[in-house]
Amino acid sequence: MDYGLMHVLLIGPRGDDGDARSARTVLAGLARAAVAAGERVSWLGTADDGGLPADDRIERITTGSRAPRFRRVEAWLTDAPRERALCKTLREAPCDLVHVHGFGGAYSYLLPWLADRLGVPVVVLAAPIEPVLCHRKTMIDARGERCMVWDDALRCARCCRTRSADGLGGAASMAAALCRPLRGLSPFPHRTAFLNRLDMLAQGLGVARTVVVADAAARDAILALGVQERSIRCGVPSDAGDWLELWRQALPSRPPAPA
Question: Which of 77, 84, 1, 11 lies closest to 41 in space, CA to CA?
């Protein structure tokens, strides 16, 4: 079917770490390929997007969104500046599709949910899977071993209170230990913060028209969260052309654009 001109709104990850920068660079390349193919592209940005190459063909929606500190587990799951900007944008000028690139980590679970509630289909890239399952984004536990227990709130809280290169520093880890008696009032990772972390991320994944994962193991993990199998695609598209086709397949059926 000839879908005509497609308007896609792209959402990349927050943060200034290497993984977030790399994901935004890949997404920027995909954006340039899409506009080169004649599609219309908007970019819902963060405060860390400044290093990306400028391209006048891509419509930028700027926000002051930044990733909160690692210790603020609940704050990683929301993103008020971009949630508000997304709703305002979709109300004023609805697009055809929202693409969320590299879901998990410091991503708001509400971004795909809000787009879906406002009637726009969503494609989510949940690869790598580690940032979805693990607040440290590594699935490596405090002992440096591969973690296969990602739904135990107490275990996750203990792990995230330890000193690590991708988490708390030494002083913060000591402060976290002293704050343990505060439980849910602690400003550091605590069991209460992890009780429904995965449930909220699953809510964001569950509304997507398509959830893209890297492999069968990641697919099984997403299925375990309650996401419907029919929405999961196993295997990340290898080039921009494959992504464009996947986006088109996620669009509701509609008549061809007039000649």
Answer: 11
Q: Is the peptide bond before 252 cis (omega within 30 degrees of 0)?
A: no
Nearest to 12 by CA among 35, 68, 25: 25
Both tokens assigned to 208: 């997507």
CB-count exposure of residue 170 (10 Å: 0-12, 13-18, 19+): exposed
For residue range 15-58, what is the model confidence (pLDDT) as tens digits? 888 888 899 999 999 999 999 999 999 999 998 887 676 788 99
What backbone phi and psi angles, to 5 degrees, belong to 141?
-80, -175
**Domains, the chain, with CATH or none:** 7-136+195-250 (3.40.50.2000), 153-193 (no CATH)
pLDDT digits (tens, 9 = 90+) for 164-193: 777 777 786 776 676 677 667 677 788 888
Q: Tell me the CA distances in angstroms from 196 to 77, 89, 177, 219, 226, one per residue in order.
A: 11, 29, 22, 20, 13
As given in the structure block, the two tokens for residue 68 are 């909160």
Spatial separation of the C-alpha atoms in residues 131 and 181, rounded to whole Å: 28
Distance (Å, whole) CA 83 – CA 59 = 17
Residue 134 has φ and ψ, to the nearest 5°, of -135, 130
Please give the full DSSP string across 62-112, using - where no structure is assigned.
-----PPPTT-TGGGG--HHHHHHHHHHHHHS--SEEEEES-STT--THHH
Contact 127, 237 (CB under 8 A): no
- Please state the pTM of the whole predicted model: 0.90
Supply the pLDDT for residue 254.
Answer: 57
* Mean confidence (pLDDT) of the chain: 89
